[in-house]
Automatic annotation (TrEMBL):
It comes from Aerococcus viridans. Residues 152-251 form the Acyl-ACP thioesterase-like C-terminal domain. This is Acyl-ACP thioesterase. It holds the Pfam family Acyl-ACP_TE_C. PANTHER family: OLEOYL-ACYL CARRIER PROTEIN THIOESTERASE 1, CHLOROPLASTIC.
Length: 253
């Protein structure tokens, strides 16, 4: 296992929706900020990435939610790089209450990209040494998600805007989750809460590109009662490519 990093944060209004619950994009954003902050505490990693023109990109996120953090709550953010192989590194994240209860936890798969050539590169052993992470004995498999929804229950169109783009000149990972959650609307979150989601990032999107959010909500039934769960599928695509694949498990409030 690797170096463990923790920080205490307060849930601000911009982390939350109108119900005072932390949003799915904010959960991911807070986790990624913690791992970026950890890198600041490892001078060799910070300097090495700058010199080589490297950056981490997310290929898949699997997040379990026991309870959504709420506005004004103080929470502990914890992260640790866990394993790596030739092309992928895994990192664990947790959001905890101040008394140590796990509110949400994630396993995130990263690839190392050469920003100068926009291509994925092998992870050198020196990178693993910086984070004190062990090599995988047996390569694990990613969860497979469908590149097309079975039922097009809902379709939302969008255009990539300037503020959707980050410093790597592509759509930021959190924006895909924002597009999906916005497509569902406030009424949805008044009735259902997310307890698990998997997001796979397939292909980058760029400024002014047009796309669609396809949502399969066919598992939702009028017979569901409080505490029951169901799964939805979401695909973000453009004319030629699937860009983001998502599966979310919901619980009826």
């Amino acid at each position: 296992m690797g170096l463990v990093y923790q920080e205490l944060i307060k849930v601000r209004h911009y982390h939350c929706n109108a119900l005072g619950e932390m949003t799915l994009p904010a959960i991911l954003d807070i986790m990624l900020i913690a791992s970026n902050n950890q890198e600041e505490t490892i001078p060799e990693a910070k300097e090495g990435f700058r010199e080589q023109g490297w950056a981490w990109i997310i290929t898949q996120n699997q997040i379990d939610i026991n309870r959504l953090p709420r506005y004004n709550e103080e929470i502990i953010v914890e992260t640790e790089a866990t394993t790596y192989n030739k092309f992928f590194s895994k990192r664990h994240y947790a959001l905890k209450s101040k008394d140590g209860l796990v509110l949400a936890q994630a396993e995130t798969t990263f690839a190392l990209i050469d920003l100068n050539h926009r291509s994925i590169v092998r992870i050198p052993e020196i990178v693993a040494e910086w984070y004190q992470v062990e090599k995988e004995v047996k390569a694990s498999r990613r969860k497979r998600l469908n590149k097309q929804v079975k039922v097009d229950s809902k379709v939302n169109r969008f255009e990539v805007k300037f503020l959707d783009i980050d410093m790597n000149n592509h759509v930021n990972n959190t924006i895909y989750l924002r597009w999906i959650t916005n497509s569902l609307g406030m009424d949805w979150f008044e009735k259902y809460t997310p307890i698990n989601y998997t997001v796979a990032y397939e292909k980058e999107m760029y400024l002014h590109q047009e796309g669609k959010v396809h949502s399969d909500l066919s598992a939702l039934s009028d017979s569901l009662n409080t505490g029951d769960t169901f799964v939805t599928q979401h695909v973000i695509d453009s004319e030629d490519n699937a860009h983001c694949l998502t599966e979310i498990t919901w619980q009826v409030k």
